[in-house]
Amino acid sequence: MGAIWNLLSLVKSAKRAVGAMQEIPGHAARCHRAVDQFQNTLVQKDYERARAGSLQAQFEMGERFFQGLGVAKDYAQAAAWFLEAANQGHAGAQNIMAMMYFLGRGVAADPAEAYKWAVLASASGETDALNTRREIAAKISAEAKAEGEQRAIRLTAPGADPHRRH
How far from each other are the two terminal CA atoms of the chain, in whole angstroms? Predict the structure, then answer.
């Protein structure tokens, strides 16, 4: 008799487990909606801070568009936001702009412009930026390298307009 009660208990437990498993897709959908809503709120806050001039928010908006985090992946938009931060001296954004110009991702490929941003980013002393500069220098012509160095000098000269590309 004890075996029958154990068997009935197992059947009831199995039915409860099956019922709980059938609810998982609904729970998952609610979680996805909550995450999307939270992500949209973060995107809006980052966007507002970026438009207000926050260097870090501009960098984060660039990352969002580059990786498709809460927004559609868009390399041109990513480049625009990274460029805003890079022009104001954000070393991480400068390093990314170096690679974007080198690879032609979101912007037209321009070895001299890539090297300019690599030079500026490497001035921060960050290992990633130093490596980027070495990698780009090894793969571009001496002329593009010299032009990139001149562009970096012009951009950092007193009274220089940071939004002037060349």
Answer: 89
